[in-house]
Every structure is written in structure tokens, then in C-alpha cells.
Amino acid sequence: MGVDSVVNKRLLVLGLVVLAIGVVLIFRLWTLQIIQHEDFQARADSNLHRVTTTQAIRGRIFDREGRELVTNRPTMAVTAPALRIDGYEDFDNLTSSQQEWVQRLADTLDLTTEDVVNRLTTTREGPLELRLVAIDVPMETVSYIVEHNEKFEGVEVEARAVREYPHGSVAAHVLGYTGGVSDAELESEAFADYLPSDIVGKTGVERSFEHILQGVRGTRTLEVNAQGRMQRVIEETDPTPGQDIYLTIDLYIQKAAEEALREALRVAQRRGYTDAQGASAVVLDPNTGAVLALASYPTYYPGEFIGGIPQERWDELVDPDSNFPLNNRAISSEYPPASTFKSFMTVAAVDRLGWNSSTTFVCTGTWTGFGDQWPWRCWLRTGHGGTSLYRANYDSCDIPFYEMGRHFHHRWYADGEEDIQEAARSFGYGRRTGIDLPGERQGRVPDAAWKYEWNRDFPEYRQWIAGDTVNMSIGQGDMLATPLQVAYSHIPFVTGGTALRPQVLHSIRDSRGEVIREMQPEESEHQPEVSDQAVEIVQDSLRLVVTRGTGRPAFRGFPVPVAGKTGTAETGRRDPVTGERDRDSHNWFVGYAPANDPQYLAVVMTEHSDGGIATPAVRQIFAEIFDVEEGWVDSVDPSR
Question: How many C-beta atoms lie closer than 10 Å to residue 450's C-beta?
Fold first, then answer.
């Protein structure tokens, strides 16, 4: 092969290579300009544009008559770009210029540099999202930042809405408070559509109806410069406000309940009960299940949580020395129901033992139904003498209920029937009422299986014994109930046997006040097992409690007929030397009015106080409801 031939072949190969490279380059250019044009255009636009969301105004909360309980007010928020730090997120790791900027911002907003760094280095939001530094910022501070914007590069101020509480701490435990959505919440399915900067309900109805109150965010597309500073708004969609909710709560009854609790504890402390620091109250419409008031003391101010509560204040609120003001005692604290439980023992005796209004007993002050070596005392040591089922209730005599306990224990021992427990559960004890609020406890109805498991580490205490049944017959021992359960369990005595689920939601409405949904009375899933005869005996007994028995001193002269039951629950504390029980106890009263046409059912529980504290507190609530002009009525109730 000649030299020319070899050269020609090499030139040909070279030409083919050049042609191939040219084809590849042309194809790549065509791909970039035609096929991937939109993708690269979007990337270019993202360097100029920033899409942010705008906060939706949270729905308002009203009482049943349309009075505002929680509303919104405009305020100013300060935001800034995220801080990027090489290494540990700490002020000392910032550059000198960053430190100067952070220090200036902290001083202006009255924050620590640690606060500012923590809020600007969070990775919960996207890298281009502005971080919230402070909210509810005073206007003079906002004006200073705006006027000196060259000192606060990247810092922006914007209008936001925050919660406002026109009645301060009133109904705080019902309403609840709001706060930033947590990481755990964001990971849950219920908060799948939420952003890390969202404010959500944490407790109370704010939590229960979060997805009703929370509106839909709007969006804003901003044009920004190379430094990320906004130049103009390109496109904007308005947020959709959350829906308003109307509660069954009556503002004036709620205020009356809270004032009655404060006064009851003041009276108890004046009598020497220094541990009387906590109390709760429930007021229901027994014909619908509507919750008219739900009060717990001590309380707190939900407005403290706006913008995040300081750690020092949070520590105070959860400190046991503060007596747990965040705890909603009405639905989440459990106590022995004491003599309020005697109504249900009466039902059990009539319907399961065949007793009736003619059944009689003799109370000598001491009962020895299980032998002389195990005497049980009535609260009246001298005895009540001849006693009927009616008097057993209105004088709260213990002896007939000990006798009931003996009969029921023999039935359990003979055939395993747990009649008391079954009757109690049918009236709602030992299970949640289903109220539409978070944090409700279920109480406890003890039985043989429960005791065996409860004492699994103490075999000698596992056996259910006669004393357990007798103790339970007067609402003591291991029996526990919430104040709401005690109220709920008495509804069938008003309705004639039907239990209605307690509700705090009255209706849902849009921002124009148009009703979207209105709640209706709802029968509970579990209905009580009770005869008309038993209901009638209990109704008559509850009326006699107020006209002739332990509730008479507190309601003497009250112009509206009331029916109810007193109760004083022993806490179980004993003197370590003498073994005698100290006088520490919890005091109950549950009552309804008018007795001949019940419209209101109320319960008051006062902790670590004597008899005669809760009963006048209910009278004070009824006085407000029925517009009776009077002050606190002192009374003493020595019964148990």
C-alpha cells in the first residue's frame, strides 16, 4: 500500500471522528435549547424567584350566645434568612460579621444571641424559607428596623395574626393554647399537609378542632436579587381563613363556676385546710349533654404561649409547687367518688337485690356484718337509728351500704357475679365519657381481675376480699372517677334512664356567620341498666338530701328547688404515730335544678378540704344562673 493511500485513510478516519464529535455537539446543543429548555429556565427562574406561603387567619372561638372567647389581633413579626454555620451551631462559630449582625438583632428584639442563632439555624424549613425570629414585636421596634434596614440586611417585617383572649384566663382549660407544630406532629399523618412554621392547637378545643380552625395558606411568588432581597411580588394567592366554632360553653356560667372555685378554696384555707389548693367544676345541660361550664383551678393564661413560652415560665407551670395549673382537673384528675356513689349502690340494690323503698335498717354507728372482730363505723358514731333507703341517702348513713356490700360480696363469692362493678360501668364509671376534648381519663372500677394484676409484685395482696367490696359500696377504696364522670353518671336520673354524651362543640360557622354544621344531642354508646323504680327512689332521695339531709344547711332558703348528693372522700392519709386518719379529704357535691324540671346539672370537687365546701360552691353557681342575689353561704357537713 502506498504512502498516499495510508494518508487518505487516516484523513478519512479523522474526518469521521470530527463529524461524530460535531453530531454529538449539535445533538447536545439541540437537547439543551429544545428538550431541556423548560428545566433550565425553571432553574434560572428559581435563582430570581422565591415562593413563600402566607399565614391563614385561624378561626375564632365563641360561646353558645356568640360572645367572643378567642379571637385574633394583628401584630408584627420579624423574619430573617437562615444562618449557615461551618461546624457546631453556636454563636462562637459565627464569623465576626455574622456575630455583629446577630448581636444587633438580639439587642433590638430583647433576645439572647442563643435565641437568635437557634431560630435562624433550624433546618425544619426549606433552605430559602425565611426563619421566624420574633412575633408580637412592638411597633417602635419594627419602626427602628425599617428605618435602619442597612443594619439589618435580609431582615424583613410582616403582619401576622395572633390569638387574643378578651376574657383573660377564663375557660383556659376548655380553650387550650397554641404553639409551633412539633417534629413529632409533622411526622404524623394528621399533620401531613402542615409546614414547620405552622401554629397549631396544643390542648383544649384548639387541639380537638385543629383542622377546622386552621385555614389554608396562601402563596406569594417573589422576585429577589442576588443577595436574596425581595424586589417585587410577582404572583399572590390569598389564604383562606379557618372556620369559626361556637361552643356550648356559656361565658357567664363559666365565670360563675371559676369564681365559686376560688371562693371555696379561700373558705377552706380560712378554716385551716392549707392544702386546699385545687378544685374543679362541671355544669351540664342534662337534657342535651351540652357542657355549659368546665372549670379547673389553679389556671393559667393562654396568651403566655404566643410566640413561644420562655423556658423559665414553662418550668414554673409544670413545677409541682405550682399545683399543676395546666392540668384540666375536671376531666383528667381522678378521685374516690365517696358518697356521691351511693346513688348507684341504691340502683344496684333495687335492681339486683330486690330491695325497695320499704327496706329498712338499724344504724347503731357500728356495723359488724363480717364479725365483731372487723367493725365498720358510720360517720355518725352515735348512729342514725331506724333507716330506710331514702334516709340512707339523704343522711348519707353508711350502715345500709355496708350491708349492700356484704350481700354483693356473697353473690360474688358464690357465683362470680360482680354486680357493683357492672352497675357502675353501666352508668359510665371506668370508661371515658367521650367528651370532645383531649386528655380525658377513664377513672377506675376495681374488680378481682384488676386487683390481682395491680398487685402482681405483692402476692399476699392479690386476693379480692370482703373489705374491698364494702369499701367500694361507699365510693372509697380503689374506686376513682373524674368530676365529669360524676356529673355524667347523674344524667339518667334527670332523663329517666338515658345517658347523653357530654359535648363542648355547638356549631361550626364560616367567617360570615353561616352555619356549616350544628351538633345535636347524642346518646352515649353505653346506656345504663336501671329500672323506673330505681330511678324514682334515687330522684326522691336526691331531693331529700337538700330539703332534709346533708345538703340542707348549704341550700336553706334558696328560692329554686335543688336535688343533689354530698360526698367527702378520705384521701387515706394516716397519722404515722397514732394510725388515725387525719382530717384530709376531698369534698363533693353533685346537684341539679330546678329539681322538678331539671335544666342544669352541676358538680364541684374541692381537694383537701372538709365537708360543706363544695355544696355552697354549687349553690353560688346556681345563684348566678337563676339570678339570685346573695353572697357565699357558710355551711358545715360532717358526713362522709
Answer: 15
| Per-residue pLDDT tens over the stretch 594-615 | 999 999 999 999 999 988 899 9
Q: Concatenate the DSSP letters of all residues of 147-183 into one string.
A: HTGGGSTT-EEEEEEEEE-TTTTTTHHHH--EEEPPH
Measure the CA–CA gap between 275 and 610, rounded to whole angstroms: 11
pLDDT for res 266: 96
The pLDDT tens digits of the residues spanning 31-46 come to 545 555 555 455 545 5
> What is the per-residue pLDDT for 575?
47
155: Cβ contacts below 8 Å, ≥ 6 apart: 78, 79, 80, 105, 133, 145, 149
Residue 75 near residue 142, CB atoms below 8 Å = no
- How many whole angstroms separate alpha carbon 184 and alpha carbon 194? 12
The three cell numbers locating residue 396: 348519707
Rg over alpha carbons for the chain, rounded to the nearest Å, is 34
Are 493 and 342 spatial neighbours (Cβ–Cβ below 8 Å)?
A: no
How far apart CA 446 and CA 380 sit, in angstroms, is 27
Residue 334 has pLDDT above 70, yes or no: yes
Where do the H-state alpha helices sit in 427-465?
448-454
pLDDT single digits (tens) 472-525: 999 999 999 999 999 999 999 999 989 999 999 999 998 888 999 999 999 998
Contacts of 230 (CB under 8 A, 6+ apart): 50, 156, 222, 223, 224
The C-alpha cell of 534 is what? 330505681
* Cell numbers describing residue 402: 355496708
Q: Whole-angstrom Cα distance, residue 486 to residue 428? A: 9
Query: Around Cβ 345, how many Cβ atoms within 10 Å?
Result: 24
Place 158 in a pLDDT band, splitting at 50, 70 and 90: confident
- Is there a contact between 201 and 207 (Cβ–Cβ < 8 Å)? yes
**What is the SS3 assignment for 134?**
strand
Query: The C-alpha cell of 346 is what?
Result: 341504691
Contact 591, 562 (CB under 8 A): yes
Q: Which grid coordinates belong to 480?
A: 376513682
- CA atoms of 337 and 107, how far apart (whole Å): 55
Q: First CA to last CA across the chain, in angstroms? A: 126
Cell 426549606: give the residue: 126
Q: Within 10 A of 426 (CB to CB), how many other CB atoms are there?
A: 19
Q: What is the pLDDT of residue 167?
A: 98
The span from the CA of 114 to the CA of 311, in Å, is: 13
Alpha helices in 159-270 (DSSP H): 172-175, 183-186, 204-208, 210-213, 251-270
